[in-house]
Amino acid sequence: MDPNSRVQNSQYYAKKLFALKLKQAYETAPERIQQYLQAEIEYVLDQIKTTDTVLELGCGYGRVLKHVATKGRKIIGIDISEASLAYAKEYLKEISNVDLHFMTARKIQFPEESFDVVLGIQNAISAMKIDPEILITQALRVTKIGGKVILSSYSENIWEERLNWFIQQSQEGLLGEIDFALTGNGVIVCKDGFTATTFSVEDFQMLIGKMKLKAYIIEIDESSIFCIIEREEPLSRITK
Fold first, then answer.
1. N or C end: fewer C-beta atoms under 10 angstroms in the chain?
2. Domain-wise residue ranges, the chain
3. What contacts 60, CB < 8 A, 6 or more positions away?
4. What are φ and ψ of residue 214, in 5° steps?
């Protein structure tokens, strides 16, 4: 993907699919997609301890934060959509252990080793359109030694259901018209310029190998590929 397309896609959730529209996309999703979304949350909750401080990258209107706040001690969400963050503030107003910040995951403005767990789920590694190495480096920088970064993407086993979900969003005016001539093999292309990609097991393996990180990869619910990266190295090793 060329840099201009990456920037265009990164602004899609800030300028088109945000706040109530983003909430509608999730709440009207087909049953199989609802199962996938719930399975991701349940897996994430199993990875979090009650003493953990957690950061979610690309938190949107707070869908995941609302669940994570029931488990972790302190929860921080960042996003590049001011509208989504404003809605999240209202959506999460009765939850005392959540803070929200307008911030890009391209440059996370928190001190080194601030969080026990950093989350980038529901295909964030692709959806945020940030170079994956930059994204992981930034996430690991703010993760404590002994902590972990949790990333997820779609399994190829849920391709048909995922495509149908995007078609539904397009029909509801939440996304542009699907360009079926360019859509396939895990990639969904809209005629308004938006492109939705994924990260496969092999993609995660190649990236982790290239960055020489300790991680394990698991598929859950035949719908999500999770990559859990364990922070063991000193900061100089990760950011050099």
1. C
2. 3-239
3. 13, 18, 22, 79, 81, 84, 88
4. -90, 120
